[in-house]
Amino acid sequence: MEETRNKQIIFKDFISGIPKETDMELKEGKIKLEVPRGSGAILVKNLFLSCDPYMRGRMREYYESYIPPFVPGSAIEGFGVSKVVASDNPNFEVGDLISGITGWEEYSLIQRTQQLRKIQQVDMPLSYHVGLLGMPGFTAYAGFYEVCSPKKGEYVFVSAASGAVGQLVGQLAKLYGCYVVGSAGTKQKVDLLKNKLGFDEAFNYKEESNLDAALKRYFPQGIDIYFDNVGGPMLDAALLNMRIHGRIAICGMISQQSLSEPEGIHNLYMLITKRITMKGLLQSDYLHLFPNFLELVISYYKQGKIVYIEDMNEGLESAPAALVGLFSGKNVGKGVIRVANE
């Protein structure tokens, strides 16, 4: 059977602190373009790979999380869009386009096929299936509608608002009839939020010496919904500015993920005085809603009611820098790596 080259991004060893490009290395091996008979597996050619903040958690030796750590010496894993090139599974045929967990490599043999999803929406950009139509987009949908329980006219704050999840949360909130403010870390991202994504207001948190004062400036009447992607001091400031019966969706803690000693939250007493609901969010708890999500978001996109911004990186070689860049805010929009064209 024919062998072909297979470049891979290898995870070297468990880390502490902020990820570095040197924590990963590019290696080139060979792979047979066949699937072992009776394995139920599929072999795929990877087209797009997703860079996501949760991947930092998989770089530490911690086995109590909802997803296990990466295996040192093996290819990194993440969400991707792939094309089936060989199959021993009746549910997948050669030529099928799929989305789901795959390896950071040119070709992957996938044994666990239960959570792979066939891509039916071929009239949408393929890369959107790791972003707008994938895990980040669905996280935004489930988090906003199910966790935040919005009402028309409410005041919504979104942190890391130009990122993969935040940009869609803000647009869904606007379409629902809410007043929306986002925070981001550069002037370019703030301009994007206000001028392209339709947020009512946005601010650069790095230019604010007092986050509590900043939120009071943008929400003099208080915040009904805080969609939290960062944790840390921003969450602490938001707690002080929530309205009675406010809701906080805890989606990410990117400010804390690389700290060996995570910062504490000092204003939790506000949960009592203001009867705030604060809830953690994993999109996998809401998968029964995925068809509804696709229908709504594709409809909004085709009508021009929402836009989606990608940060496209070309070639598997760019993957380590793209992943590391998430943690210093280098990406503008959803971080994606283009491994190959179809």
Automatic annotation (TrEMBL):
Source species, domain of life: Eukaryota
PANTHER family hit by this protein: PROSTAGLANDIN REDUCTASE, ZINC-BINDING DEHYDROGENASE FAMILY PROTEIN
Classification of source organism: Eukaryota, Viridiplantae, Streptophyta, Embryophyta, Tracheophyta
Signal peptide coordinates: none
Span of domain Enoyl reductase (ER): 42-337
Name of this chain's protein: Enoyl reductase (ER) domain-containing protein
GO function term, MF aspect, one: oxidoreductase activity, acting on the CH-CH group of donors, NAD or NADP as acceptor
Keyword annotations from UniProtKB, A to Z: Oxidoreductase
